């Protein structure tokens, strides 16, 4: 708890995000930290990461969880940025792979909308709709998710749903010119 207090003073409430990623421990090394105790469930299961201190030292409940989450979040952010760079270069297929890896570690609204953009470019409209729906589950008023889902639904010829998404978007941003333009196209369709 002294270390937590020191980190809080130094880095503020987001001190966990500033921790370095956890190095992976080879399976051969993990077995050394496994200390079987008679009849304890999971006694022979090695931990996913090496705990600090001596083998067999008891750890506070939930020790690894925030630490692993912080490392996972950082890795997810890096993968998302790599995806963003690939989109700038026009390599949408590779970007989809990076975004997919990122989403396995951390489900983030922006990553879903970014991957949906790639799917739109690749004419994979059903996948784009799914990603936008996931993004909207995380943030129901996300403008990009509503707009991109409306675009994908238009391509799938589901005009009614597409118009509904655009109308939801316009409630949040009534002067969104791209959305107004898409609504005009939909009304003509």
TrEMBL record:
A biological process from GO: protein targeting to mitochondrion
Transmembrane regions listed in the UniProt entry: none
Stretch list, region Disordered: 1-63
Keywords assigned by UniProt, alphabetized: Cytoplasm, Repeat, TPR repeat
A GO MF label: heat shock protein binding
Compartmental location: Cytoplasm
Gene Ontology CC annotations of this record: cytosol; mitochondrion
TPR repeats (start-end): 109-142
InterPro entries: CiliaryAsmbly_MitoImport, TPR-like_helical_dom_sf, TPR_rpt
Keyword Repeat annotated: yes
Biased composition (Low complexity): 36-47
Superkingdom of source: Eukaryota
Position of the signal peptide: none
Protein name (database record): TOM34 protein
């Amino acid at each position: 708890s002294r270390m937590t207090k020191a980190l809080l003073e130094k880095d503020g409430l987001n001190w966990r995000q500033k921790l370095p990623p956890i190095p992976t421990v080879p399976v051969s090394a993990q077995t050394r930290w496994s200390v079987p105790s008679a009849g304890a469930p999971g006694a022979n299961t090695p931990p996913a990461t090496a705990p600090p201190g001596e083998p067999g030292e008891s750890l506070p409940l939930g020790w690894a969880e925030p630490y692993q989450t912080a490392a996972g979040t950082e890795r997810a952010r890096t993968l998302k940025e790599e995806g963003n760079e690939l989109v700038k270069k026009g390599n949408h297929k590779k970007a989809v792979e990076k975004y997919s890896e990122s989403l396995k570690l951390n489900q983030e609204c922006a990553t879903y909308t970014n991957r949906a953009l790639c799917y739109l470019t690749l004419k994979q409209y059903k996948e784009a709709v799914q990603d936008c729906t996931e993004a909207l589950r995380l943030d129901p008023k996300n403008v990009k998710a509503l707009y991109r889902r409306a675009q994908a639904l238009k391509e799938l010829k589901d005009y009614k749903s597409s118009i509904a998404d655009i109308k939801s978007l316009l409630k949040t941003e009534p002067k969104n010119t791209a959305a107004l333009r898409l609504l005009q196209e939909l009304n003509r369709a």
